Structure formats: structure tokens, C-alpha cells
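re: ur question from yesterday

yeah so i grabbed the chain u mentioned. its 71 aa long if i counted rite. heres the sequnce exactly as i have it in my notes:
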Amino acid sequence: EICLETRILTLADVFDALTAKRPYRAAIPIEEAVSIMEKMRATALDNDCLDAFKAIVNKTSIASTAAVFNK
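ran it thru and got these C-alpha cells back, copy pasting raw so excuse formatting
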């Protein structure tokens, strides 16, 4: 059993890795990152954590916040 904290941090790390601008590639848009993460459901990412994350993304302006950091 992987502890909840680790499951949450794993999800956050994957999201950051996908949406952060890198020297070798542009940042992946939020919607595309969530789609990629959905494909990782129940293998690398916890179902419940991903559901909670998607609910937050859908309710907040996380996309505009991420855009500030990826300029």
C-alpha cells in the first residue's frame, strides 16, 4: 500500500513535468496534460487522487496560473 501523501506527490510531479516549459520542449497545455494523466490512471496514478485533481482543475483557474510560470 502506497501512502496517500506519496500518491498525491506523484500526481503533482507528473502534472508539473508535463506542464512546465523545458529547454528542449514547450509546456504541454493543461487539457492535454490531464488527458495524458488519464491514460496513466490505475497504473502510475491513483484513481481517487486523479478524480480529485480533475475536479480542482475544472473548478479553478489553474490554467491561467500555470501560464504565468511558463512564460
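noticed a couple things. The chain is about 65% helix and 0% strand. also The first helix runs from residue 4 to 19.
anyway ttyl
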